[in-house]
């Protein structure tokens, strides 16, 4: 086996594999193909041989395996996309890291903070690394907002709204791994709203306290089907966060009221530049509008946008985004929502350190329904 730093990193193209050839794998294969000057999809892995064959034929994947260990040993990929159900991520990422391959793992990266800490501990200083798919960080709108915030043109963030109000009928939960703590790690807080919460945390930074309610209101599942939280941030901003799979008019919405403007993002599963809206406060129109117009543009959020950043970092021998440290801040907020809801008390990040039961698993001491 080659050590990570001896691999083909730095010489074109990188060699990638996809593990789990179900629903989301297609988006990964398309992103890889669109960046084929830089990366080649050389192998696929799935325990379902029929699904693997159909996927391999459709996406022109030469090497096919029903066993991850065998693939890692014989293919020695640079990058492995983990597209399996969440309960498998921890062991599969560890296998990749152990074989010297960087893992790009679908959200949620693990079922718990404890598992995520184990992955971070298994990374090498010079790789291999684990990166989590949180694709909403990578559209030009989010990057533009980060730049304009850093320029000081918007003033302080005061108030935020972060809603993931989606609809998932009962039949959606027929897939055996969905709606269960032991295989999905949670309901819409962990599985759906995590994208918007990740973007909120990427924009507003460290959170300091969360108070939440989680309910199982209408679906026959183990987990919650809605949560409502308020969150304070170290920079003083206060946010309301709503995560639902019960909402007939579906929407993903983030709003931040700064001193000098309101910034809004309205979309469903991904956004372009036109999905952002900025409303300057009276007296600040010229400066705010000029700063906004000068920002990054032209990139939709999505797997391709994130993969482009991942590949660049691998070439430059830097940890690819979203790093384990950044993903942890978001996973900690998810754990905080559950801990606050189930313990009926406000929760800080420090409350979630081991030996908190919410460090060991998102359901912690368990829901009271
Ligand atoms: N980023 C996003 O927007 C987004 C969207 C949808 C799903 N996801 C995430 O992607 C992941 C997969 O979701 P999905 O909807 O594609 O699931 P899926 O059930 O459609 O596909 C999972 C695949 O993994 C295979 N598999 C199961 N056990 C395996 C093993 N031990 N080794 C190899 N393959 C195995 C299954 O046969 C199946 O083909 C989940 O973590 C989910 O949360 C992310």
Secondary-structure map:
Layout: E1 14-19, H1 25-34, E2 39-45, H2 49-59, E3 63-65, H3 68-75, E4 79-82, H4 89-98, E5 102-105, H5 113-122, E6 130-132, H6 140-151, E7 157-167, H7 188-191, H8 194-204, E8 207-215, E9 226-233, E10 238-244, E11 246-258, E12 261-267, E13 276-280, H9 285-293, H10 303-315, H11 324-343, H12 357-360
Protein model, in words:
There is one protein chain. With 369 residues, the protein is of the alpha/beta class. Among the domains are: 4-132, NAD(P)-binding Rossmann-like Domain (Rossmann fold), CATH 3.40.50.720; 156-258 and 331-352, Dihydrodipicolinate Reductase, domain 2 (2-Layer Sandwich), CATH 3.30.360. The protein is built from twelve helices and 13 strands. The strands form two sheets. A seven-stranded mixed sheet has the order 8-9-10-7-11-12-13. Helix 1 (25-34) packs across helix 10, helix 4 packs parallel to helix 5 and helix 8 crosses helix 11. The longest helix has 20 residues, at 324-343. The radius of gyration is 20 Å and the shape is globular. Bound molecules: nicotinamide-adenine-dinucleotide.
Shape: globular
Strand content: 15-25%
Provide the structure class: alpha/beta
CATH homologous superfamily caption of the domain at 4-132: NAD(P)-binding Rossmann-like Domain
Low-confidence stretches: none
Count every helix, treating DSSP H or I runs of 4 or more residues as helices.
12
Second CATH tier, the architecture of the domain at 4-132: 3-Layer(aba) Sandwich
Q: What ligand molecules are bound, each kind once?
A: nicotinamide-adenine-dinucleotide
Q: Biggest sheet: strands side by side, in what order?
A: 8-9-10-7-11-12-13
CATH class of the domain at 4-132: Alpha Beta
What is the CATH topology classification name of the domain at 4-132?
Rossmann fold
Tell me the Rg in angstroms: 20 Å
Name the helix and strand elements from N-terminus to C-terminus, one letter apiece: EHEHEHEHEHEHEHHEEEEEEHHHH
Number of strands: 13
Kindly report the oligomeric state of this protein. Answer: single chain
Mean pLDDT: 96
The helix content is 25-40%
Give the termini distance in whole angstroms.
Answer: 50 Å
Can you summarize the main beta sheet? 7 strands, mixed
């Amino acid at each position: 086996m080659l050590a990570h730093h001896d691999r083909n990193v730095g010489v074109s193209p990188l060699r990638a594999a996809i593990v789990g050839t179900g629903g989301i794998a297609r988006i990964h294969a398309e992103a890889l193909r669109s960046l084929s000057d830089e990366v080649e999809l050389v192998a696929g892995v799935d325990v379902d041989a029929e699904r693997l064959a159909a996927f391999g034929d459709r996406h022109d994947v030469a090497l096919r395996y029903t066993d991850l260990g065998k693939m890692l040993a014989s293919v020695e990929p640079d990058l492995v996309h983990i597209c399996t159900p969440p309960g498998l991520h921890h062991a599969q990422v560890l296998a990749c890291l152990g074989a010297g391959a960087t893992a790009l793992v679908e959200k949620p990266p693990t079922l718990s903070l404890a598992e995520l800490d184990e992955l971070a501990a298994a990374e090498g200083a010079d790789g291999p690394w684990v990166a989590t798919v949180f694709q909403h960080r990578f559209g030009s709108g989010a990057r533009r907002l980060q730049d304009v915030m850093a320029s000081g043109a918007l003033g302080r963030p005061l108030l935020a709204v972060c809603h993931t109000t989606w609809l998932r009928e009962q039949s959606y939960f027929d897939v055996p791994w969905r709606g269960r703590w032991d295989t999905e790690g949670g309901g819409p807080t962990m599985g759906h709203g995590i994208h918007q919460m990740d973007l909120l945390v990427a924009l507003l930074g460290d959170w300091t306290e969360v108070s939440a309610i989680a309910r199982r209101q209408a679906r026959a599942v183990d987990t919650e089907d809605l949560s409502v939280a308020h969150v304070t941030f170290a920079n003083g901003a206060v946010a309301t966060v709503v995560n639902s799979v019960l909402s007939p008019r579906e929407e993903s919405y983030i709003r931040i009221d700064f001193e000098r403007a309101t910034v809004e993002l309205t979309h469903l599963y991904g956004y372009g530049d036109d999905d952002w809206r900025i409303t300057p406060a009276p007296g600040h129109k010229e400066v705010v509008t000029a700063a906004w117009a000068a920002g990054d543009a032209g990139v939709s959020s999505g797997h391709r946008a994130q993969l482009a950043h991942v590949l660049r970092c691998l070439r430059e021998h830097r940890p690819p985004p979203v790093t384990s440290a950044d993903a942890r801040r978001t996973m900690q907020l998810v754990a905080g929502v559950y801990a606050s809801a189930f313990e009926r008390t406000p929760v800080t990040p420090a409350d979630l350190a081991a030996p908190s039961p919410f460090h060991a698993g998102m359901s912690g001491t368990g829901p009271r329904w």
